[in-house]
Design goal:
The structure holds two protein chains of two kinds. Chain A contains four helices and four strands, in the order E-E-H-H-H-E-E-H. By secondary structure, chain A is α+β, with helices and mostly antiparallel strands. Chain A has one domain: Arc Repressor Mutant, subunit A (Orthogonal Bundle). Chain A has a two-stranded antiparallel ribbon with strand order 1-2. In chain A, strand 3 and strand 4 form a beta hairpin. Chain A is globular. The N terminus of chain A is likely disordered. Chain B is mainly α. Chain B is 81% helix and 0% strand. The longest helix of chain B has 39 residues. Chain B is rod-shaped and about 95 Å long. The two termini of chain B are 23 Å apart. Classes of the chains: A alpha+beta, B mainly alpha. The interface between A and B is medium-sized, with 19 and 22 residues.
Chain lengths: 121, 168
Amino acid sequence: MWLRDGVMTNPNFMNGIPELVILRLLEKREMYGYELVQAIRRETNNAISLGEGVVYPALHMLEHRRALKARRKTVNGRTRIYYAVTKSGKKRLVGLTADWSRVTGAVSHVLSGDRHVLANV
Amino acid sequence: MSSPTFDSLREKLLRAGIAPRHVHRYTRELRDHHEDLVAEEIQNGKSEPEANASAALRLGDEETLAAELLKRPELKSLATRFPWLVFGFGPVLMLSFIVIAALLIEGGFLFWHKNLIENFIGAPASLSQIEPAWIKSLAFLWNGTMTYVLPVLIAVLIWGIMHLTYLA
């Protein structure tokens, strides 16, 4: 899947990381943007640092692809837009998680010295 | 606490063809997020000006915020993605629909009028009885309105609804 004639065929891989993290966190419970960014910082021990506003285009995109659904909800007098994972989003998360596990496993093998592992990816 | 309005970001995104509903929601979410960040920074002991500056830094600059949305073509409006559909096929379809609907309504009215007269006189009605001068004038007015006025009114109505819903 990853290597074809020695050329990397999945340039969207890095773009998929925010999608994977967002879907995983929203799978647990619905959140609004600020809450989600705090959760990303907390769950990744600040390893993923991003301009906090850029999370919204990713959320809109996932909603457009029907992986998320958005709804307005008033909490403590403030109306927020909450995002939750849809059935289709859960399927997408399973696929992304499997891809991620396969790739990180392969990279780990490479880093630990097994040079032939990519042939099996 | 003063929140940025993101007016110039909104205008930049709309001009670039991003769908108004995404632009409206995006700027609203950014404004809310900014307020939350300022509250957090103040709670952490910063003064309000410091908290505002820090919140703006954490949120990201306008160029970055715009670029993130602009690189997703799927979020552009239907008119930007398919201009031939909206500005070419759309008006033709709308006009055809209006003309057909207007003719059906007109035909239905004439049929009803013919039946009314025949029931009244108890015999088949002549053309001059079915279509007297006032009916012809009414039909002329009706056809003109349906062809030239209604499409413009519908366009104004659609624009008004879009404006109130997404841009107000």
